[in-house]
Write a structure and sequence with these properties.
Oligomer: single chain
Radius of gyration: 12 Å
Order of helices and strands: HEEEEH
Strand content: 15-25%
Number of helices: 2
Mean pLDDT: 94
Low-confidence stretches: none
Largest sheet: 4 strands, antiparallel
Helix content: 10-25%
Structural class: alpha+beta
C-alpha cells in the first residue's frame, strides 16, 4: 500500500474545519492563526499550499495536515 498525498484534504478547508481562522492577505502563502497547542493568539503560521505549520512561540510544527491531525 502506498500513501497518496494528493488525497489529503484541501489545506485551508481542513484548518478552518478545525475551528481556526486564517488571517493574512488573500493570496498569501503563509497565514496566521492561534496556536491550538499552547493557546497563543496569532503565533501559528500555516502554509496554505503545502499544509506545513509552525508556532513561533511554542515551537510546535509539522509538514502537512496529517501531521497536524496526529499532533
Amino acid at each position: 500500500m502506498t500513501f497518496e498525498r494528493d488525497r489529503l484534504p484541501d489545506v485551508v478547508s481542513y484548518f478552518e474545519g478545525e475551528g481556526l481562522t486564517l488571517a493574512g492577505p488573500r493570496r498569501a502563502k503563509w497565514k496566521t492563526t492561534v496556536c491550538s497547542f499552547h493557546g497563543g493568539s496569532d503565533s501559528m503560521r500555516i502554509n496554505t499550499f503545502s499544509g506545513a505549520w509552525v508556532c513561533m512561540a511554542c515551537g510546535a510544527k509539522g509538514g502537512d495536515v496529517l501531521a497536524y491531525h496526529q499532533a
